[in-house]
Specification:
3-stranded antiparallel beta sheet
Length: 268
């Protein structure tokens, strides 16, 4: 089948010392921002004919060279969230680059960023293995997020004028829109955007950055876990609107109870 990546292609390339020049018109794996963007087209490993799980990756419009790395990173993150880059599997930069229509260099750079974030690990002379995580790690992330986010939002409930919370309603609505579509990657982006918008009102950018990193890590699926159902996503999304209601009502106890329950829900 044309363009199919088989086992020998997966193992090749990471030990090579030169790479072919990128094509003149590489393709977009996934737009860079917004909950309405299309998903990256990396199919599931359940297809035995998909080789590396990359067969059928759609060709998209040409990328601008300065944005290649960022858009490849976005596409890989979406594939991780959706479970399309399977935990425990090894992927080579040349094989991924071939399917994205770019050289191995931006793919390798994106994978190295994911390694720094703890999503993958380097496998010498082979590529990058997706980290296998357990329920305990997910529970620990939820606990740390609660330690950081709960006191901040409780303080915001006491100090931010009620009328101001209406400005954040579009962020909550974006999570509902993505959940209704069953769009895991879009929901993950909208979910983080909502929490960033709320936390940014504290005026401490370091809190926003650290919380967002923890949040991103909590969105990676567990090995063998089923994909979240649309009903689960919608239930999670509805909690954002309830949290805004409690913040607007300047009810710190209600804010704390809702947020702790919301973060515990991320352990599912």
């Amino acid at each position: 089948m044309p363009g199919q990546l088989r086992g020998e292609e997966r193992a090749r390339g990471e030990h090579t010392h030169s790479e072919p020049p990128p094509p003149a018109a590489p393709v977009v794996p996934r737009p860079a921002a917004g909950p309405d963007r299309p998903r990256a087209g990396v199919p599931s490993h359940t297809d035995p004919d998909a080789g590396e799980g990359l067969e059928g990756l759609p060709r998209r419009r040409p990328l601008q060279r300065h944005s290649v790395r960022g858009q490849i990173l976005d596409a890989l993150r979406a594939a991780l969230v959706g479970g399309e880059l399977a935990p425990g599997e090894v992927y080579s930069a040349p094989a991924l680059g071939e399917r994205f229509g770019v050289s191995a260099t931006p793919v390798r750079e994106a994978m190295q960023q994911l390694a720094l974030e703890g999503a993958v690990e380097v496998v010498p002379n082979r590529g990058f293995r997706v980290i296998v995580r357990g329920a305990r790690e997910l529970a620990e992330l939820a606990e740390v997020r609660a330690m950081l986010e709960v006191p901040v939002m409780v303080r915001l409930a006491r100090t931010v004028p009620s009328a101001h919370w209406a400005e954040l309603r579009p962020f909550a609505e974006a999570t509902v829109t993505a959940a209704a579509r069953g769009d895991l990657a879009g929901y993950a982006d909208a979910d983080r955007a909502f929490h960033r918008a709320v936390l940014s009102l504290a005026g401490n950018q370091q809190i926003v950055v650290v919380a967002d990193d923890l949040h991103r890590r909590s969105q990676w699926p567990l090995v063998g876990a089923p994909a979240p159902r649309r009903a689960d996503l919608l239930a999670d999304a509805s909690e954002h609107a309830a949290l805004l209601d409690a913040l607007a009502a300047q009810d710190p106890r209600r804010v704390e109870a809702l947020l702790r329950g919301h973060l515990r829900g991320t352990e599912r």
